[in-house]
UniProtKB/TrEMBL annotation:
The keyword Cytoplasm does not apply. Residues 410-599 form the Peptidase M28 domain. It comes from Oncorhynchus mykiss. GO terms for cellular component: external side of plasma membrane; melanosome. This is Transferrin receptor protein 1. The keyword Cell membrane applies. The gene is tfr1a. Pfam families: PA, Peptidase_M28, TFR_dimer.
Length: 781
């Protein structure tokens, strides 16, 4: 019965007396009270006692009259006693067939009235339109919600058809015009204007909306004058571009050319017996992030780094370059915890902040330097530079950037699910840019808003009912290292890693064509390839890339344990050169795509929409837990081989008693748990909502459980042992073995053994969680 869904496990106590029945039969005395536990009058009272601890509730329906008060029949005290009694039906004396009929009719009448009241109140809650008022994240997502009685199924082909029909190039052209801005740097007035526009659109679509504010440390160029670079005593010119979070001050040293600044490039310099101590390293952009270039140079004791644009064919000689050099994400002055205004922490800073100066220069400035450099010849393929630089090629770098605290605002809207509303996928895009930022922010924001419009319309007008919720997020301070997104992750870590099952990044989704590139958690690879194969295989060539530190999804995966994907349409063999410059305009992107930006934005929206909708449409999450098995085994195989080499070469460092048996056992446990789950899914009844929720929770736990519980999020925020960074990762174990093999001074055998044991138990813990109940764990260690 429907009534059972309203009052589950309810014990019904009906106390009927003859006088009450006779009184109840009078039409004038029949009314319904919605006040529980009230004082008895001439009405029918429903007494609901709800036990929040999960015990059986009691509902008392009692007919009462003023006559009872006169004879003391049903006083307040007696009423409370009835509420605690077990199921009792009081038989009135002298029962006649007529009175029995009256009693039965009255009971049926009461039952019908209670049924209608429960049904109408339930429908009112289910069909109430979403509020557009501002609310908090917790209120909007994690609050309780009534589950639907019926399974909200729409054929998947119909879902895809609706998505495609509602997205058009013309709608994107309009969105581009609405969200384009010449100036919207993080924390600026322009950024605030765009935030209000996005929030307004979310409200127009009838979504639940809220905002999230953070006070963060951002970096501005010098308040007066500019940073300065001189070569052999001559000023190279005005510098408008800068690198946020660079160390400030002055550094002087002989210039040394270092290609892209990768460690392999710097080792080639060392192979030529060239020391980096005190040198000013000149490198070109590309291959790795600015922060990694500076960190590599600092490791080898360089005094400063100069970075210039690599693509001098398409980019102007005077184009200024902007970026940041924080080897991490989020506000570097609140590492591991959120930058809320009310939080009070002692002064602290991220270990990822550079210890040396860093500054960008133009192509023309770099040419002035390289043209006059002397020294040894550069390796072949190093950007056409002839000489590497000599001790007489002196450069002075002066950095006077200003650190400022600013308010940034993240904007959210949510379409709530109909079965598991507290489980959700997040789609997000950065809203800020150094300049116009058409490719870096405008296109992504437009795709975000158009997807919100499309899916909202599918829910309101076409009967689509997602099982799980979809959160749309507009981030601020993305150009400073995903600051807005990371602060949100830090602020709601305990809620997010238990409830958010995926993140889809929309930054920079169109930078060229016809190649499709994506980087993602291995859990999402199968879904990505399936989506491309089914819907995009005849239009674009797909390339999967490794996850990088400067990828906006990196903190979602490695800090919060949320499976994520970034993707973009680009040109094979070359990157869009205008990102991080003031030339990232609508005209430049249209030129790079042969005027197909709107068409490509539609494709980007369809791809992201299919991924998100598939994750909220089906009974089970399409996250492939078996994908991690091969990756773990690859690392274990490499570690095993290197341990044997070290034991052979330096038995005093790693004794023969150290075995990889336990690491292999943990790997086997994970493999068996993943295979067992796949078998369990094949044999499960997908109509069992609780079973599906249990399986989905186990799938969601995988990424989270690969975060090492043995390191501090403040000291090592990217705790994922497979794709994160730090001494706790399997890659770090392998690198440590390389150092032990050559008996490097930084190698520490005892530290390695500790890291080895902790990594083993992290994998075993993930396997145990994936197995399900504690009695189902495969703990062979």
């Amino acid at each position: 019965m429907y009534c059972d869904s309203i009052f589950p496990n309810t014990l019904l106590t009906i106390s009927l007396q003859r006088d009450q029945i006779l009184t109840a039969l009078l039409p004038s005395s029949i009314s319904v009270s919605t006040q529980f536990n009230g004082e008895p009058r001439s009405y029918t009272r429903f007494n609901l006692t709800q036990n929040m601890e999960g015990e059986n509730s009691q509902v008392e329906m009692k007919l009462s009259s003023d006559m009872d008060e006169e004879v003391g029949g049903n006083g307040v005290g007696e009423d409370h006693n009835h509420a605690k009694e077990p199921y009792v039906v009081h038989r009135p004396a002298g029962r006649t067939p007529k009175s029995v009929c009256f009693m039965v009719a009255t009971v049926l009448l009461i039952f019908i009235i209670s049924y209608l009241i429960g049904y109408l109140s339930h429908r009112k809650k289910e069909l109430a339109p979403p509020s557009c008022s501002r609310s908090t994240f917790e209120e909007s997502i994690t609050q309780g919600s009534v589950k639907m009685e019926a399974d909200p199924v729409m054929d998947w082909n119909d879902v895809k058809r609706l998505l495609d029909e509602k997205m058009s190039a013309s709608s994107f052209e309009s969105a581009f015009s609405e969200f384009a801005s010449e100036s919207h740097q993080a924390g600026s007035a322009g950024d605030t204007v765009l935030a209000k526009k996005v929030l307004g659109r979310f409200k127009d679509y009838g979504m639940y909306t809220w905002t999230d504010e953070h006070y963060v440390k951002l970096v501005d160029p010098p308040a007066s004058g500019s940073n300065m670079v001189t070569f052999k005593g001559s000023d190279l010119g005005t510098l408008r571009g800068y690198l946020a979070y660079s160390k400030t001050g002055t550094a002087k040293g002989a210039v040394l050319y270092g290609n892209y600044g990768q460690m392999d490039d710097l080792r080639k310099l060392q192979d030529k017996n060239i020391a980096l101590d005190g040198r000013v390293l000149l490198v070109r952009s590309g291959k790795i992030s600015f922060a990694e270039k500076v960190a590599n140079a600092a490791k080898l004791n360089a005094s400063a780094v100069l970075i210039y644009p690599a693509d001098d064919r398409r980019i102007g000689g005077s184009t200024q370059l902007f970026g940041h050099v924080h080897l991490g994400s989020g506000d570097p002055y609140t590492p591991g915890f959120p930058s809320f205004n009310h939080t009070q922490f002692p002064p602290v800073q991220s270990s990822g902040l550079p210890s040396i100066l860093a500054q960008t220069i133009t192509v023309d400035m770099a040419t002035t330097i390289t043209r006059e450099m002397e020294g040894k010849s550069a390796p072949t393929g190093w950007g056409g530079v002839g000489k590497l630089g000599d001790n007489d090629d002196m450069v002075t770098v002066e950095v006077n950037n200003v650190l400022a605290e600013k308010l940034i605002v993240n904007v959210f809207g949510v379409i709530k699910g109909f079965v598991d509303p507290d489980r959700f996928v997040v789609m997000g895009a950065q809203r800020d840019a150094w300049g116009p930022g058409f490719a870096s922010s405008t296109v992504g924001t437009s795709v975000l808003v158009e997807l919100a419009r499309t899916i909202s319309d599918m829910v309101k007008n076409d009967g689509f009912k997602p099982r799980r919720s979809i959160v749309f997020a507009s981030w601020s301070a993305g150009e400073y290292g995903s600051v807005g997104a990371t602060e949100w992750l830090e602020g709601y870590l305990s809620s997010l890693n238990m409830k958010a099952f995926s993140y889809i990044n929309l930054d920079g989704v169109v930078t060229g064509f016809p190649t499709f590139k994506a980087s993602a958690s291995p859990l999402m690879n199968t879904l990505i390839q399936r989506t491309l194969r089914e819907d995009f295989s005849f239009r674009y060539e797909a390339v999967m890339e490794p996850l990088r530190l400067n990828d906006p999804v990196y903190p979602f995966i490695t800090f919060s344990g949320i499976p994520s994907v970034s993707f973009r349409f680009t040109t094979e063999g070359e990157e869009y050169p205008y990102l991080g410059t003031l030339d990232d305009t609508r005209e430049k992107l249209y030129g790079a795509t042969s005027n197909q930006v709107a068409k490509l934005a539609v494709s980007a929206g369809q791809f992201a929409g299919r991924i998100a909708l598939r994750l909220v449409h089906d009974h089970l999450l399409h996250l492939d837990v078996e994908k991690y098995t091969r990756q773990i085994r690859t690392h274990v195989f490499a570690i095993n081989s290197k341990i044997k080499k070290v034991q052979s070469m330096h038995p005093q460092l790693l004794p023969k008693s150290l075995s990889v048996q336990w690491l292999m056992s943990a790997t086997g446990s994970y493999s068996r748990a993943a295979s067992s789950l796949a078998t369990e899914i094949d044999n499960s009844n997908l109509e069992d909502a609780e079973l599906c929720r249990n399986i989905n929770d186990r799938i969601m736990s995988v990424e989270r459980d690969f975060l090492s519980p043995y390191v501090s999020p403040r000291e090592s925020p990217f705790r994922h042992i497979l794709v994160g960074s730090g001494s706790h990762t399997l890659k770090a174990l392998s690198d440590h073995l390389d150092a032990l093999q050559i008996d490097h001074s930084d190698a520490n055998a005892d530290l390695f053994r500790i890291q080895f044991a902790l990594a083993t138990w992290t994998i075993q813990g993930c396997a145990n969680s994936l197995a399900g109940e504690v009695w189902s764990t495969d703990n062979m260690i």
